[in-house]
Amino acid sequence: MSSSSPFSIADLSVHYGTRLAVRDVNLDIEPQRITAIIGPSGCGKSTFLRCLNRMNDLVPGASVSGKVLYYGEDMYGPNVDAAAVRHRIGMVFQKPNPFPKSIYDNVAYGPKLHGSRKGLDDVVEEALTRAALWEEVKDKLKSSGLSLSGGQQQRLCIARALAVHPDVLLMDEPCSALDPIATARIEELMIELRQDVTIVIVTHNMQQAARVSDTTAFFTVEVGDEGGRTGTLIELGETKTMFSTPTDERTHNYITGRFG
Amino acid sequence: MTELRKAFHEELDGVRASVIRLGAMVTELIPRGTASLLDADIEATARILASDDEVDDLSLDIEDRCYVLLARQQPMASDLRSIMTAIRLTGELERSADLVMNIAKATRRLHGLTIDPKLRGLIARMSDQAQRLFMSAIDAYADANADLGAAIDDMDSRLDDLHAEFIRTIFAVYSTNGNGAGGDLPAAVQLALVGRYYERLGDHAVNVGEHTVFMVTALRAEHLGAERARLRALEQEASGVPPSADDDR
Description:
By secondary structure, chain A is an alpha/beta fold. Chain A has helices at 45-51, 82-88, 103-113, 120-130, 134-137, 150-162, 180-193, 206-212, 239-242, 249-255, and strands at residues 7-16, 19-29, 34-38, 62-70, 73-74, 89-92, 168-172, 198-202, 215-223, 229-238. In chain B, helix 1 packs antiparallel against helix 2 and helix 1 runs antiparallel to helix 4.
């Protein structure tokens, strides 16, 4: 465990009520890298991702055990404010979910909420520029965010997340509702953002993980004696290695399509 | 497994079977080429040259199928290595068949010449050894046996020795000072080339073995050499001495 890693995760388990959804995850997430989380449906990869910014707090009945250290600090410690955590750790979801507000207000929402009203125009322009959307929307900042195309809406959501200058961006299948061209733009954007933001992406698209990520974590689902399905981390490694010579046979079978 | 993915893996097996068949074709061509040369059988030569078309046809078929698999299935890990290896082996085997064609064509070039018995014996032994190397290399591939694949390189030194002896014998037989055939320079050169074809066949069998090692282990024989070169470059950088080709002597 190193305090220079954005995340050091030890023995992390998640229950939904009595059901064990994710079991004993141990891994470090390195800074300024893209870490992809892959695995079949039900393997707990989204649940795991939501542990990284305490989004599971919002799920009734969810409980988290083990340690999630954020730069060495226990993210689930008694004095930690979950909202402050989410300020540092942004999230982008599967379906673009802009607020039914103007493009400008979507991006300005976070900074305003966190009390910064000065230089909002600059903040909005910077965030939209970093999200590679500025050129397309600079003349219609007052238009509704919902008037944009799907790919643009997703980049708007990324701009909204970037506006509060997070250290980490969590992405939960950010391209699954997008066409290949919009997907390629988001992937390029991820590569650019990596220079100053640590990115963790959950993806169903293995080619996407192979293309954009530096590190890949493979989760799978195990069926217990009583039929309960529990996700767990099988293997973590350099993406290059994971897609060429994975160590675990389950990883190999998954990436070569010998599953099910 | 989904039906689509199952079909993909069946097609991979099919490609592998075709590569094995191609390897068997080349292995069988070697003694035929040698027999046409030693028996001075011009008709056999013509039949062998026709067989090359079948080799080319199967080679193209394998490459086309690999190309489609790469384009449509985005293979990963061992599947990807399997396809890469099929493509590389096809190149090695196709070229090996061409070498056998060259041996067969030498039948025409050497027609009317009586080959010295000692040279005939060495040609027969080089042919046997080349065939044995191909059998082992194709076995290694068929069984995904990396140990056997890696062993072909050592086995090839036997063929290299025979080749060296063959060249020495050509010198002895065709030397103008000796008691042998003397002076027939065109025949000496043709025979030396024939010896070279067998020696090259051995090298291609070694490559088949090495590609098989890569398919099974993801390691290549060249990794060791490449690693030595990197270390040498690092040492030279550290000592400030410009790189030289003689440093490892």
